Amino acid sequence: MRIVCVGDCGFDRYVDLGVERPGGITFNVAANARWSFPPETKVTIVTAIGDDPEAEVVSRFITQVDPVALVTRFAGATPVQYIAVEPSGEKRFLRYEPGVLTELRIDPRARGIIAQSDLLVTTVFAQVEGLFDSVMAAPSAGLRAVDFTDLSDVDDGLGLVARYVDRFDVGFFGLRADQTALIDALERIAVARGRLFIVTLGPDGSLAIGEPRRLAAPAVRVNRVADTTGAGDSFAAGFLAEYCATRNVQRSLERGAAEAAQTIQHLGATTIVAG
To answer: Could you say which of 27, 61, 157, 255 is the most buried, measured as most Cβ atoms within 10 Å of its Cβ?
Structure first.
């Protein structure tokens, strides 16, 4: 099986702790997929980094996950997410600097890689809508999954989902349990277009909507939450690993919850560190 992950790879900079970890939704999903999927699975990363000192470190991170990643280098800054961690372990995103990622578009080589994928995983947020449009325009025969995050930083989030819903199979959304109107609206889109939407709700578990009935799974409780950064990304990797193998949505929700529980017990979205 070949997984292609397209999008952001960069640094997570913990301002209150003075430490850095590899990050970016795409990097996190790809890294977690390496141990969630069977060992023979090939994981390919398509991303962009800059020409700053951080780029060399991020390049080494990427190589640990995919030694032959398609990494385009532009003059400019490598993406950085600034994070604070509350005493509860809940992460707080302070600001995101996309750097050169805003320049990346799918070129013929990347288009060929996507075409050969059994699973395409990508993401969309305000700074990368141009990249996302180019990914969605690239055909592939396998399963296609999109992480829409929480839809808060794009204009007309529901409109964005509806516009692209025929170009992907599984959508991931990180929301709160009290956002019932938004969840209901997403469910109407999923049902109308025959798509599967997965809504992660942090400590309130997760939902699968678009099926004949809603399915739910609780979050897996842990003794101590160290850092919730990347929990949704590891959930997605775990969910997709089970779903690709069995197409059992309930078991996939439970597998995602188990993977997320492992992530929140350590600092950083993955266990990969510099060195």
So the answer is: 27
Ramachandran assignment for 268, one of left (phi > 0), alpha (psi -120 to 50 degrees), beta (any other): left
Separation of alpha carbons 40 and 262, rounded Å: 22
Question: pLDDT tens-digit profile of 92-114?
Answer: 999 999 999 999 999 999 999 99
pLDDT digits (tens, 9 = 90+) for 20-57: 999 999 999 999 999 999 999 999 999 999 999 999 99
| Residues 111/115/117/123 CA torsion (nearest 10 deg) | 50
Q: For 231, phi and psi rounded to 5 degrees? A: -60, -40
Question: What's residue 275's pLDDT?
Answer: 47
* Domain positions in the chain: 2-263
How confident is the model over 257-266, as pLDDT tens digits? 999 999 999 9
CATH classification number, 2-263, choose in 2.60.120.1440, 3.30.830.10, 3.40.1190.20, 3.40.309.10: 3.40.1190.20
DSSP 233-257: HHHHHHHHHHHHHH--HHHHHHHHH
Residue 272: the pLDDT is 81
| CA of residue 55 relative to chain centroid, distance | 20
DSSP string, 119-188: EEEEE--GGGHHHHHHHHTS--SSEEEEE-TTSTTSTTHHHHHHHHGGG-SEEEEE--TT-HHHHHHHHH
* Cα dihedral 217, 222, 225, 230 sign: negative
